[in-house]
Amino acid sequence: EDELSRSSHSNPGKSLVNGIKTNPASNSPKSSLPVPVGPPVYVDLAYIPNHCSGKNTDPEFFRRVRASYYVVSGNDAANGEPSRAVLDALLEGKSQWGENLQVTLIPTHDTEVTREWYQQTHEKQQDLNIMVLASSSTVVMQDESFPACKIEF
Question: Can you tell me which residues the record assigns to a coiled coil (predicted)?
Fold first, then answer.
């Protein structure tokens, strides 16, 4: 802690991202920062960051964060939300798990991007054991039942 405190005071242009010193201008997910080595994290439910925008999510997210359910909340085509690239990243990341765990994708809105992706990749989804709920689906969690669009953290 003392070393961290000294380094941040002596070099205010540096910050820590996942314990790695970085330059704040390079904090984008597309930067060349090394990803810390570690085992994947298994969770029941994961919200795809930033409304499923390609700005913050890539295949590495899906390799490292392994969820039974992923929530896709994007509904802003003008901003690329949800992003086709992120949905494709789910397929790429899941294909590298090495185990065929069931994954359910929960889109909270019916968008052209999710419909096209679903239709064009349906066979691959089946091969990877990925089920996509309709945006009008009902989700049951901990003895409660509610529309998929109502999932909040």
Answer: none
Dihedral Cα 13, 54, 36, 24, nearest 10 deg: 0
What pLDDT was estimated at residue 89?
Answer: 94
Of 98, 101, 105, whose CA–CA distance to 134 is shortest?
105
Strand order in the sheet with 130-132: 41-47, 65-72, 103-107, 130-132
Residue 98 is part of which domain span?
41-147
Q: Is residue 82 in some structural domain?
A: yes
Q: The dihedral of CA 137, 139, 145, 148: what is its sign?
A: negative
Which residue stretches of the chain have pLDDT < 50? Answer: 1-29, 153
User: What is the predicted pLDDT for the residue at 149?
Assistant: 55
